[in-house]
Known about the structure:
The protein is flat, with a radius of gyration of 26 Å. The two termini are 51 Å apart. It has a domain at 134-207. It is an alpha+beta fold. The protein has helices at residues 2-53, 60-63, 71-86, 90-103, 107-124, 156-161, 199-207; strands at 134-138, 145-153, 168-174, 182-188, 193-195.
Amino acid sequence: xxxxxxxxxxxxxxxxxxxxxxxxxxxxxxxxxxxxxxxxxxxxxxxxxxxxxxxxxxxxxxxxxxxxxxxxxxxxxxxxxxxxxxxxxxxxxxxxxxxxxxxxxxxxxxxxxxxxxxxxxxxxxxxxxxxxxxxxxxxxxxxxxxxxxxxxxxxxxxxxxxxxxxxxxxxxxxxxxxxxxxxxxxxxxxxxxxxxxxxxxxxxxxxxxxxxxxxx
Length: 216
């Protein structure tokens, strides 16, 4: 009888270990596989689009006996880099002003272009602290805390309207598990707690719903 009980315990222990190893394997492999799959889709999509824009004699998807994944992406990177190199020059600035003048005359397009340009200039600026600082904010009420990202100091009409506090900070509150959506809050700096964790660590914590601990 004792032998049977011992055998049953060994079997249960082996099954439990197998289950734990299996789920650990899923946690390790699934993010990697999804990342590789999404990367492959993006690269293939770019390759197809770039090949479609080129004349037939330059179509790299047909010119070679076999496809070279990522060649379209390399072409795009080189093209964008060349534009960046030419823009500071006189010719580049002239074309840029001419293009912006055309866009400024299109009612809907000019609003979209202006908003996107402002966002990109703010995010890409080397002097900007946008999304470089992680804070804790009491939201949606006191004693309930959420992770937020500082996007800059509050300016313009909002700043003038809320002139009671001279030091307001724009804070983006991401949602779980999709951190690309969220809320914009205008918070007095004195009500923020600045954290040492990196933005990457904070994003991981938000996506995982707190399962992945961040910081020291």
